[in-house]
Design a protein that fits this description.
The protein is of the alpha/beta class. It folds into 2 domains: 32-151, Tetrapyrrole methylase, N-terminal domain (Cobalt-precorrin-4 Transmethylase, domain 1, 3-Layer(aba) Sandwich), CATH 3.40.1010.10; 154-280, 2-Layer Sandwich (Methyltransferase, Cobalt-precorrin-4 Transmethylase, Domain 2). The protein is 31% helix and 18% strand. The chain contains 9 helices and 12 strands. It has a 5-stranded parallel sheet, with helices on both faces. Strands 8-9-12-10-11 form a 5-stranded mixed sheet, sandwiched between helices. Strands 4-5 form a two-stranded antiparallel sheet.
Length: 301
């Protein structure tokens, strides 16, 4: 004989809530709804469209107008809806196409026209992307905004170059820092804290100040032969990776005519997995790894 217990009202309510939660968290159901009069601050990652989050893609597909930066790749811009308006507001070092205060106001103005506004930024909007400033300005002016993180360049580009930012017994921490000169013409950074051999340091926007960066790190105790790398256009088809040491980075820039956007990576992890440029970004071949180890063993013998 089977006995079936009737559900009490609270049990029924809990079951409804559970079913609702299950439905809303299914992959096919979007939680990223961009309404007219709202802004989505979206990080597009370092360039490869396959590194976009699902949430970012959903916001991209809803945009009436997209206000985008210089580091947003063509591959990602191609995902915008047909007929969606695009406005370029990119910045380069010491050269701003549109000043930041104008960008802030532009976002407010477009949202108040009732448009679904997509603010598309390279990397992550809250890591050296002024996303916090833009969100603050929007809120102060009565405009609600969605925040969508992206893979920041320091993570995406180093991964595609085969460089782990941390590694047990080698690097216990990592620091992301900007090498951009301040308004007073100085590069005032916590040099002493950046000189520890057990941490990886990644400089954004540091190519033009590289001589000062290397000079200060070495003078504050970082070994001149510390492995270092320059990653230009990371994660994109034209990705370039140049490995060297802290003391010869400046020479690499001159020799290869390296220009922004380029990340500077400093730390023992640079050569942990390979000392070679990956033939396919983001793909480590076992045969190349084993060959590299054999060469290293012979060199040390």
């Amino acid at each position: 004989m089977t006995i079936k217990l009737a559900q009490t009202e609270p049990q029924k309510e809990n079951q409804v809530e559970q079913n609702s939660l299950t439905t809303n968290t299914q992959v096919g159901v979007s939680k990223a709804n961009l309404n007219g009069g709202e802004v989505a601050l979206v990080g597009s990652g370092p360039g490869d469209a396959e590194l976009l989050t699902i949430r970012a893609l959903r916001f991209i597909q809803q945009a009436d107008i997209t206000i985008y930066d210089r580091l947003v790749s063509d591959e990602i811009l191609a995902l915008l809806p047909e007929g969606s308006e695009k406005l370029y507001v990119g910045k380069e070092q010491a050269k701003h196409c549109v000043p930041q205060d104008k960008i802030n106001q532009l976002l407010v103005d477009q949202a108040k026209l009732g448009k679904r506004v997509l603010r598309l930024k390279g990397g992550d909007p809250f890591i050296f992307g002024r996303g916090g400033e833009e969100a603050e300005y929007l809120l102060e002016n009565g405009v609600s905004c969605h925040i969508c993180p992206g893979i920041t360049a320091a993570s995406g580009c180093t991964t595609y170059a085969g460089i782990p930012l941390t590694h047990r017994g080698v690097a216990q921490g990592c620091t992301f820092i900007t090498g951009h000169i301040q308004n007073n013409g100085q590069l005032n950074l916590p040099w002493q804290s950046l000189s520890s051999a057990s941490q990886t340091v990644v400089f954004y926007m540091g190519i033009n100040t590289l001589p000062k960066i290397t000079e200060q790190l070495i003078s504050h105790g970082r070994a001149a032969n510390t492995p270092a790398a320059l990653i230009r256009r990371g994660t994109q088809p034209e990705q370039q990776v140049y490995r060297g040491t802290l003391e010869n980075l400046e020479q690499l820039v001159i020799e290869h005519k390296i220009t922004p956007p380029t990340l500077i990576v400093i730390g023992e992890v640079v050569n942990q997995l390979t000392e070679q440029t990956l033939s396919t970004p983001g793909f480590l071949q076992a045969s190349e790894y084993q060959l590299g180890k054999e060469v290293l063993i012979k060199a040390e013998a």
